[in-house]
Amino acid sequence: MWRTCLLIIVMAVGMTACSGEEESDVEPQTTTAVETLPTDSGDEGGVEPLPTAELETLQTNFDAVSAAFMNANRTKDLETFRQLLTDDAELHDGEDPKIGIEEFMEAVSSPWSKFPGMDGRISGTFLGRDEVLNRQEVYGFLGWSEESPLIEWDLLEVRDGLIARWSFFYNPETRVFFIPSPEQEAADQTAAAWLTRYTSAWSSGDPAVVADLYAPGTVREDTLFQKQAAGPTEVEAYATDWFDWYPDVTVEMLEPIIERTSREPLTGGVFAIRLPQEQESCEVRIVVLLDTSDEGIVRERVYYDTDSLAACGWVS
Q1: What whole-number distance in Å separates Cα of residue 258 and Cα of residue 87?
Q2: Contact (Cβ atoms closer than 8 angstroms) between residue 221 and residue 302
C-alpha cells in the first residue's frame, strides 16, 4: 500500500519542480548518440573533457523532457502524459515492473486529489547520455515538511525524446512506512558497509583495493563519459589510470541512497570527487548506483552534476 501512495507522490511533485515559468508547449527533444571517448586527454592524461556545446545540447534535451513531464503532472492530463511515453515504456516502482504503455498508464492513473497538500521541488539533477536522475524533495504529506522533506530519486531513460523507462526509489527516510524486520535491518547495515568500502577504496590510491570490490562479471558504466569496464581486471586497469592521473584524489559520500524496501534493491549515494590542484582544489559531484551480491558489486552506474564539471577542466 505505501508503495502505491509513493507513486502518487511522484506524480504530484511536478506541481512546483519547475516553478516560475509556463511550460505548457514544451516539446521533448532527442538526445544525440556520441562515440565512446578515449581514456586520456593527451600527454598529461586525465578525463577527456566534454565539448561545451555537446554538454549544453544534452542538458537542453533533458530539460525539455523534464519540463514536459512536469507539466503533464501539473495539469493531471493522462493523455498528455501518455504522449510522453514510448509504446514499450516501463515503470519500475519497487513492485512488479509495469511493461508497456497500458500497464504504465494504469499504474499512474491514481487520483491526484488524494493528497491535496502534497508539494515538492527538484533539488538536484545528474546526467548520463540517455538518462536523467533527479533528486526531489516531497513535503506536505504524512508529516513531511519543507524543512524535513521526503527524498525521492527519479531516473528517466529517454529514447528519441520520449520516456522509455521511469524508475523511482527512496532514501532511508521511507522507514516511516513500516517496521523493518531483523533481516531488513541487517540488509540496511550491509548496504551502509558497502558505501563505506566504496568511498575508502576510491580514495586509497590502490587499484587492487578498488578491484576487490567488484564481482566476476561486473559491469561499471560511466553513463556520461561513456566508459565501461567489464570484470575486476578491467576495473583495476581503469583505476590504475585514474590514480596515475589524480594521485591525491579523495572521495567523500555526501548522501546515502539505500533502497531495500523494493523488489529491486539498490545501494548508492551522492559523492564528491575532490581533485587537489596546484592553485585550488576542485570538486566533481556524482551519483553512483550499485547493484551488489555476496560476491561484490555486480553493476555500477555513474551520473554527473554537470554544473560541477567545469571547475576541474572536464568541459572544454
Answers
A1: 31
A2: yes
Select from 8, 9, 44, 21 the least CA-distant residue to 247.
Answer: 44
Give residue for cell 517496521. Answer: 179
Q: What is the pLDDT of residues 59-114, one digit of tens each?
A: 999 999 988 887 777 677 889 989 999 999 999 988 889 999 999 988 887 746 67
Taking Cα atoms as reference points, which of 105, 23, 95, 98 lies closest to residue 64?
23
Q: How far apart are CA 264 and CA 261, in angstroms?
A: 8
Domains of the chain: 2-175 (3.10.450.50), 179-312 (3.10.450.50)
Q: Checking DSSP bridges between strand 214-222 and strand 296-304, what pairing results, if any?
A: parallel
Element of type H or E holding 59: helix 52-75
Q: For residue 310, give the DSSP letter.
A: G
Cell numbers for 256, please give them: 546515502
How far is 17 from 311, CA to CA, in rounded Å? 27
In this structure, is the dihedral angle defined by the CA atoms of residues 240, 241, 247 and 252, taken in order, positive or negative? Answer: negative
